[in-house]
Amino acid sequence: MKARKLLMAIAVAASLVFLAGQVMAEPITINWWHAMKGARGKVVDNMIKAFNDSQPDYKVVGTYKGNYDETVNAGVAAYRAKKQPHLLQSFEVGTQTMMLSGAIYPVYKLMNDEEYNINWKGYLQPVLSYYMNANGDLMSMPFNSSTPVMYYNVDLFKKAGLPMLDKTKPVTWDELGEITAKLVKSGVPGGMVTGWQSWTQVENYSAIHNIAFASKSNGYEGLDCELLINNPTVVKHVAMLKEWMKDGRFFYGGQKFQGPKAEFIAQNAGVYIDSISGIAKLKKAVKDFKWDVAPMPVESWMKEPQNSIIGGASLWVFNGHDKEDYKGVAAFMKHLGRQDMQIYWHKQTGYFPITLAAYDQLKKDGYYNEQPYQEVGIKQLTRKVPTKVSRGLRLGYFIQIRNIINEELELVWNDTKTPQEAMDSAVKRSNKQLREFEKIYQ
Amino acid sequence: MWGKRCFAKSETMIKRSVFSSRTLPYLLILPQIVVTLAFFYWPAAQGLVQSLMRSDPFGQHSTFIWFTNFTALFTDPLYLKSIGITLFFSMSVATVSISTGLFVATMANRALKAKAVVRTLLIWPYAVAPAISGILWLFLLHPSYGVIALAIKRWFGVDWNPVLRGSDAMFMIIMASAWKQISYNFVFFIAGLQAIPKSLIEAAAIDGASPFRRFWTITVPLLSPTLFFVTVMNIIYSFFETFGVVHMMTQGGPGGATNILVYKVYQDGFIGLNMGGSAAQSIVLMTLIIAVTLFQFKYVEKKVQYAG
Q1: What is the tally of structural domains in chain A?
Q2: What is the number of alpha carbons within 13 Å of residue B147 lying toward its C-beta?
Q3: By CB neighbour count within 10 A (0-12 exposed, 13-18 middle, 19+ buried), where does B48 fall?
Q4: pTM here?
Q5: A189, A268, B6, B272: most buried, per Cβ within 10 A?
Q6: CB contact under 8 A, A103 and B58
C-alpha cells in the first residue's frame, strides 16, 4: 500500500516536472502578418529564421496575407474578433488610420517600456519622419521604403545625341522638356511616362519643392487640415505635362506601374518615372537596351531641392497581448534594425536600409560602385533635412484622396478639364473626405 | 362537402405523401433556413446597421447618425453618375450577350456535322472566371501590350486608348463581361430551341414564311420564358459578378468612367476602409437589384408565354 502511494507520488512529481520542462522549453509565438510574397517573401522568411535561431524564448511566425489592402483588412477583421496578430505590415497611405485606431501600441513606447535605448538619430530621417506623430515620436517601425526616381533608356539617349544624366544632380523640368523633345524628334514614339502619378507628380513634386500638400503641416498637426494642391506651382506642373502631351513628350500609361513600365520596356518612351524598387523588375525584364537611373527632375528656380518622400510600408504593433509577448516583439524589432539584417534586406530587395550605420557600411564595402543605381534613391532622399512639409503626408482617407487625384488628373489628360479645374475639384472632393474622416474621431 | 369529395377523388388519382407531424416539415427545412439566415440575412442586417453608423475600421469609435450616409450619397453627383454608368453598363452587357447568345444558339441548332463539338466549344467560356476573362481581354486590348490593340493602332490607325478615354474603357469592359455570359445564354437558348416542336416551323415554312418571320413569330414567343429568365440572370450578373472584370481591366477608371456601383463599394469599403459609406452603398445596391427583379417579374413576365 505504502509502496503504491510512493509510486503514485513519484509519477505525479515526474509528470509535473515534465510538464514544467515543456512549458519552459516552449517559446512564445509572435505572429507577424505581412504582404511580402515571392522573392521578397523569402527574404522575410530568412530574416525571421535568423531571429528564431538566435534565441530560444520567442518564435516569430510570418504569414503572407495578400497585398497591402488585403493584409490591412485581415488585421482589421482580426482585431474586431480579438484575434489580432502582434505585428501587422501596413502601407504608408494607411498611416493616419492606423495611428488613430486606438488598436496599436506605439513603437517608441514599446521600445522605451522594454528598455531598449534606441538611437533614432542613427536612422534615415526622411524614412522615420513619415511614421512619426507631431511630437516626433515613432509610431510604427519602417520596414520597406522606396522613393521615386527617373529611369532612362541609354541607347535611345545616345541615338538622339543626348548626354547621360548625373546620378546626384537632378535635371530641371525645362531640361527634361528639351530632352524629351529631342527623343521624340529622333523617332521615339513618346518622351516620358510616369507610374503612380499622384505619388510621383503631386506628392513628391510638392515635397521636393517644399510646397505644402495640405495645411496643418500636411496633416501632421491636426485632423482639420485641407488639401492645397490647387496652388499655382502644382497646377503649372500639371499644365506643363498636359502641354507635353500635345507633341508626345509625355503620354499617359495608366495609374499604377504596369502600363508605364510596359511602354518603357517596349522603348515607346525614353524616360520613365517610378519607384526605386522597380530596379529589380527592370533588370529582369529589359534585355535589348541599356538603361540608367537619375534623380527626379526639379524646377529651375529650386536651387536646393528638398528630399523626396517615401512609399512602402511599416510595421504596426497591435495592443491587447501579454507583457511577455511584447518583450519578444521588441527583441524582434531590434533584430530587424540590426546592421547585417538591413544590409541583407537592401541588397535582396532594393528597399532602403533604414539605419545610417548600414548605409555607411554598404558604402565602405564598395557596394554602390557595383550597384550605382541603388544609391540614387538614397541620395535623393537624404540630400536635405526634411522640413515640415517634406517629411511626409498624414491624411485621413488618403487612399480615397489618391484615387480622387488620379481621377482628376485623368480628366486633364483626356481633355475633359483644365488643370486648374481638375486640381480645384480634387481639393474640393478631398476636403469632403477629410471632413468625413475628422468626424469619426471627434 | 364538395371540397372533401374532390380531395378524395384526387387522392385516388395521385399518390400523395402527407406529413402527420406538424413539426417534422419545419425540422426538415431547418438546415436550409439556418444557412440562409446565417449567410444571407444576418450579414444583410449587419450591413443595414453599419450603414446608419459612422465608424472607424477597428470599431473603436462608432456614432449612430441615422441616414446621413445615405443623404451624403445622394447629394454626391459622382455617386449619381456611378448609378447611370452601372445602368448603361448592365443594359449593354445584357443586350450584347443575349442577342449574341441567341444568334449563336440558332446557328448551332441547325443540323451541323460537328454539332456536339461546336456546342461543347461554345460552352467553354462560361467556365472562365470573370477576373480571368478580364485578364484575357486585357492582353488583347491594353494599349501598351494588347495584341489586338497594337494591331489596330498600327495597321488601321485607330486611336484606341482605354487607359485615357472613358468610352474605350467602357467598350472594353462590356466586351469582356458579355463574352463570358454569351456561353451561359447559349446553353439556355439551345435547350429552349430544342423544346420547340419542329412541326410548327415546318408548317410555317410550307405556308411560305421567311426564315426571319418564322424566327420572329414562332421561335421568339415560344422562347420567351427562357428569354425572361436569361434577362434576369444577366442583369444580376452584370450588377455584381462583373466586379472581377472591372478590377482587372480598368479599376473604375479613367476618370471614374467605369466605376460601376459594386466596384465603388469595394473601393470605398475594402480599400478605403470607409465602413458606413460603403455599407450604405451596399444597401442601395441591394434595393436597386430587388427593384429591378420585382419590376421584371411584375411587368415583363406578364408578356411571357409559358405554354408550349
Answers
A1: 2
A2: 5
A3: middle
A4: 0.86
A5: B272
A6: yes
Q: Do B255 and A411 touch (CB under 8 A)?
A: yes
- Asked if B254 and B169 touch (Cβ cutoff 8 Å), the reply is yes
Domain B76-303 indexed as CATH 1.10.3720.10: yes
| Chain A CB contacts of B145 below 8 Å | 262, 266
Q: Quote ipTM for the complex.
A: 0.82
Full domain range(s) for residue A119: 2-146+311-382
Query: Quick check: A400 and B274 CB within 8 A?
Result: yes
Contact A34, A72 (CB under 8 A): no
> A401: number of CA atoms within 13 Å, CB side?
28
CB proximity list for B72: less than 8 A, separation 6 or greater: A436, B277, B280
Judged by CB atoms closer than 8 Å, whether chains meet at B267 and A403 is answered as: yes
Over residues A65-122, the pLDDT tens digits come to: 998 989 999 999 999 999 999 999 999 999 999 999 889 999 999 999 999 988 888 9
A211 and A254 co-located in one domain: yes
Nearest CA in chain B to A245: B164
Beta strands A311-317 and B53-55, pairing class: unpaired
Q: Answer with the residue of higher pLDDT: B154 or A428.
A: A428
Q: Which residue has the cell 442601395?
A: B284
B54, B256, B268: residue with CB nearest A439 = B54
Subunit contact B144:A254, Cβ cutoff 8 A: yes
Least confident of A206-215, A297-306, A324-333, B152-161: B152-161
